[in-house]
Amino acid sequence: MTSIAIPSGMPQYDDVPRFDVARVRADFPIFDREINGHPLVYLDSANTSHKPRQVLDVLDEHYARHNANVSRSVHTLGTEATEAYEGARAKIAAFINAPSVDEVVFTKNSTEAINIVAYAFSNASLRPDADPRFRLGPGDEVVISEMEHHSNIVPWQLLCERTGATLRWFPVTDQGRLDESGLEDLVTERTKIVSLVHMSNILGTVNATSRITARVREVGALLLLDCSQSVPHLPIDVVDLDADYIVFTGHKMCGPTGIGVLWGRGELLAAMPPVFGGGSMIETVTMAGSTFAAPPARFEAGTPPIAEAVALGAAVDYLTGIGMQAIQWHEKELTAYALDALGSVPDLRIFGPTVPVGRGGTISFALGDVHPHDVGQVLDSLGVQVRVGHHCAKPVCSRFGVPAMTRASFYLYTTTEEIDALVAGLEQVRKVFD
Amino acid sequence: MQLDQLYQEIILDHYKRPHGRGLRDADDPGDQVAEAHHVNPTCGDEVTVRVATDGTVLHDISYDGMGCSISQASASVLHELLRGRGAGEAFEVHEAFVELMSGRGQVTPDEDVLGDGVAFAGVARYPARVKCALLPWMAFKDAAARAGVGVSPEVKA
Question: What are the residue boundaries of the Aminotransferase class V domain, all occurrences included (chain A) (predicted)?
Answer without folding.
Answer: 41-422
